[in-house]
Amino acid sequence: GGMHMLKGKVAIVTGGTRGIGLAIVEKFLENHAAVALAGSRQETADKAVAQLRERYPDAQIMGIAPDLSDTAAVEAAFQQVKEAFGHLDILVNNAGISQRDSLYNYDPADFEKIINLNVNAVFRCTQSAAKIMKEQGGGVILNTSSMVSLYGQPAGCGYPASKFAVNGLTKSLARELGKDNIRVNAVAPGVIRTDMVAALPEEMVQRIASTIPLGRMGEPEDIANAFLFLASDMASYITGAILSVDGATIS
Q: How far apart are CA 106 and CA 119, in angstroms?
């Protein structure tokens, strides 16, 4: 439904072309934010924007695709958003990759790739956004963490390592940036029904769901709702929080 929780706000969402990121973009648009969605390639960003424009004809929306490993490219893209929409109030660091190799055949290059996108890019985007936000008197930075940031996982050590790092950035920057009126929080999703899950056989999905106390996987919208709340003024005294949205899943 169309609420107005982010009316007049401008948001950037990285990894915004599909899955949880796209659900966040939709939720923000429904709540009257102007949104710049960042994709890994300009054409995927543009395609997502075109589809969203059909569904939200009045929305202010644009697609960007900076190389998140390039500080100058990130800064330029964020400035471009600020110039297009007038300010920057919300950054969602959602771009990320996961990996499940065992330690013994884990390619060190893959480990570095995960840390580069899941941690270094979050640092870069956050630094660029915070500079803009400080200057204008405040803002909100939100990070996508994971339930594995609380428990680890039995294979693919790089992914939980990266999400523990995201939690560390979240808690530390909340303390550092509070004086600049910048709130920093993270959402830690559990098992969410995205494209990855859609590819699994139904009986496997049932088996996973049966281990979750709420008896179902989460939907992307469940995660988007948490981001909406944390981005909004309803959460004006919440910072440094890692909000689990996982149906009480135990790893």
A: 18
DSSP tag of 1: -
35 and 59 in contact (C-beta within 8 Å)? Answer: yes
DSSP code, position 61: E
Q: Which of 211, 226, 215, 216 is nearest to 193 (CA)?
A: 216
What is the model's pLDDT at position 33?
Answer: 98
* pLDDT confidence band for 195 (50 / 70 / 90): confident
Side by side, the strands of the sheet bearing 182-189 are: 61-64, 34-38, 10-14, 90-93, 139-144, 182-189, 242-245
Catalytic residues: 159
Judge contact between 221 and 244, C-beta under 8 A.
no
Residue 20 C-alpha from the chain's centroid: 8
Residue 197 pLDDT: 80
* Cα 13 from Cα 126, distance rounded (Å): 12
Q: What does the alpha-carbon distance between residue 118 and residue 147 come to, in Å, rounded to a whole number? A: 15
Model's pTM, two decimal places?
A: 0.97
